[in-house]
Design a protein that fits this description.
The protein has 338 residues and is of the alpha/beta class. It is 41% helix and 15% strand. Strands 1-7-6-5-4-2-3 form a seven-stranded mixed beta sheet, with helices on both faces. A three-stranded antiparallel beta sheet has the order 9-12-11, covered by helices on one side. The structure holds pyridoxal-5'-phosphate (PLP).
């Protein structure tokens, strides 16, 4: 990171003091985060220890007993489990493989209630890699506005679209009650920094989030803030690096799913570094994955572990060792499934 840092960041790094930092985030970091969006000022950003702390605090501040939330599912577990833990009633808006994991706005309409306080979506989506088109995304925002509820858009994989033209606008730029969630972990591949953020145009909500943060982490790690600043300033090269890894791995995966079409199928992701394929051969994904990790040291995450019953598995392809892992999977599949 330091090799990519500009002069100002190098000076900040050299003069770094390991005291408490500003609890809302380093002012330069907040300004850099704001520059990722179109209509956002630094005051409309708030930093957290990763996206995870942001999710925990946001859902605890927005939801409680008597509230209703709708969360698109399958999903990153915290998005619905933390919501449930607040005492709110949570409906899952199910995405289906048969429709290419598309967002079903009719189903959403049926789930909305007068008490619905929050809708939660995550695009580019973990685990399916699905991404709605702009029209559907706009219609989602219209529905949230009409229902008068908050819309949390988990945008941690934003920037990892395989075609730049597919990038959706950030919800905070489009909707006055839209909340955009970002982080250094995914598209920028710097999870160890533990720097995430929420961006929203509602000062009252931001104030309540900041007050809650006084009871969790108080402020970010001082070295991480400077490294995150340097990284965001060098974002074009970091994003290009991540996209090159992911699209390079997709070439291997395309070949795999075409050669193994009798045993596996997938909806090819449109963005991100995660897919949610299905084992169609006559074998349970749980026992297949358990034997695979035993024999080859290759780990697939069965969907059953997060309550998805369709014999699907979560496949991550954001690392350079994917081809090696795929070789292990193919060796094992050749023994078990042919
Ligand atoms: C969709 C999504 N949101 C949020 C997070 C949390 O990010 P972090 O671990 O950087 O806090 C993750 C992590 O896997 C994720 O996949």
């Amino acid at each position: 990171m330091l090799d990519l840092a500009d002069e100002e960041c190098l000076t900040l790094w050299r003069d770094l003091k390991l005291g408490y930092t500003e609890s809302t985030g380093h002012p330069l970091l907040r300004a850099e985060i704001a520059s990722l969006y179109r209509h956002i000022t630094p005051d409309e950003t708030l930093t957290f220890a990763g996206a995870e702390e942001a999710i925990y605090i946001l859902l605890n501040v927005l939801l409680g007993a008597g509230d209703h939330a709708v969360v698109a599912w399958p999903a990153y577990q915290s998005l619905y489990e933390v919501a449930r833990s607040t005492g709110a009633s949570v409906d899952l808006l199910e995405l289906h493989e048969s429709s290419g994991w598309a967002l079903d706005l009719n189903a959403l309409q049926r789930l909305l209630r007068p008490t619905t306080r929050l809708i939660v979506v995550n695009f580019p989506h973990n685990p399916t890699g699905t991404l709605p088109d702009r029209e559907s995304f706009g219609a989602l925002i219209d529905m949230a506005r009409y229902a008068g509820c908050w819309l949390l858009s988990d945008e941690v994989y934003r920037g990892l679209e395989y075609d730049d033209a597919d990038r959706l606008p950030a919800v905070c730029d489009q909707y006055e009650h839209g909340i955009s969630l970002g982080v250094m972990s995914k598209a920028y591949a710097l999870a160890g920094l533990r720097v995430g953020w929420i961006v929203c145009r509602n000062a009252d909500l931001l104030g309540r989030l900041a007050a809650f943060k006084d009871y969790t982490t108080i402020c970010n790690s001082a070295p991480s803030e400077i490294l995150a600043l340097a990284a965001l300033r060098a974002r074009e090269s970091l994003l290009a690096r991540s996209r090159a890894i992911v699209t390079g791995n997709l070439v291997y995966l395309d070949r795999f799913f075409s050669e193994w079409s009798g045993a596996f199928r997938w909806v090819r992701p449109r963005a991100g570094s995660v897919a949610f394929p299905k084992l169609t051969a006559n074998s349970s994904i749980e026992s297949f994955a358990a034997d695979l990790v035993e024999h080859e040291g290759v780990l697939l995450l069965p969907g059953t572990l997060f309550g998805h019953a369709g014999n699907h598995f979560r496949l991550g392809f954001g690392r350079r060792d994917l081809p090696e892992a795929l070789e292990g999977l193919e060796r094992f599949a050749a023994l078990q499934l042919r």
